[in-house]
Amino acid sequence: MDKASYLCFALLLVSLSPVQVKAGWSWTDIALAGVAGTAAVVAAPAFLTAAGFTSAGVAAGSFAAAAQSTYGGYVASGSLFAASQSAGAVGIGVKTATTIFAAAGGATLYAKEK
C-alpha cells in the first residue's frame, strides 16, 4: 500500500469511535462517515487547484487571486487563505487531512440526521 492508502486506513480506524445519534450509533453510520471523509481527502487537492491554489502560487484570474486582492498585500499567518496557499503549494499534510476527514464525516452524519 502507498502512503495515501495508509493515511486513509489510519483515518478510518480513528473514526471507529462510537458516533452518538438520536437512537444510538451504528456501523453503517461509521462506514458512511469514513467514506465521506476519505472522498473529501482525495478531492481536496483537485479542489484547491480549481480554486487557484497551485504549486507555483496563486493563479492569476482565479478565485484565490480575487480573495487575495482583498487582503491588501498582507495575508495573516495561520489564516484559512494561508493554509490553503500552503496546501496548494506543497500538498496536504496529515493534520490537514485528518481535519478534512473529521469535518466531512461529521457533516455527513449531521446532514443524515436532519
Number of helices: 5
Helix residue percentage: 55-70%
Shape: elongated
How would you classify the helix and strand content by structural class?
Answer: mainly alpha
The Rg value, from CA coordinates, equals 17 Å
Q: How would you characterize the largest beta sheet? A: 2 strands, antiparallel
Strand order in the largest sheet: 1-2
Low-confidence stretches: none
Intertermini distance: 37 Å
Would you mind describing this structure in some detail?
With 114 residues, this protein is mainly alpha-helical. The protein is 66% helix and 4% strand. The protein has a two-stranded antiparallel ribbon. A hairpin with a 2-residue loop joins strand 1 and strand 2. The longest helix has 25 residues. It starts with a helix and ends with a helix.
Give the key terms.
transmembrane; mainly alpha; signal; two-stranded antiparallel sheet
Write a brief caption for the model:
The protein contains 5 helices and 2 strands.
Topology:
Blueprint: H1 3-14, H2 27-51, E1 53-54, E2 57-58, H3 63-69, H4 80-90, H5 94-113
Antiparallel strand pairs: 1-2
Helix pairs in contact: 2-5
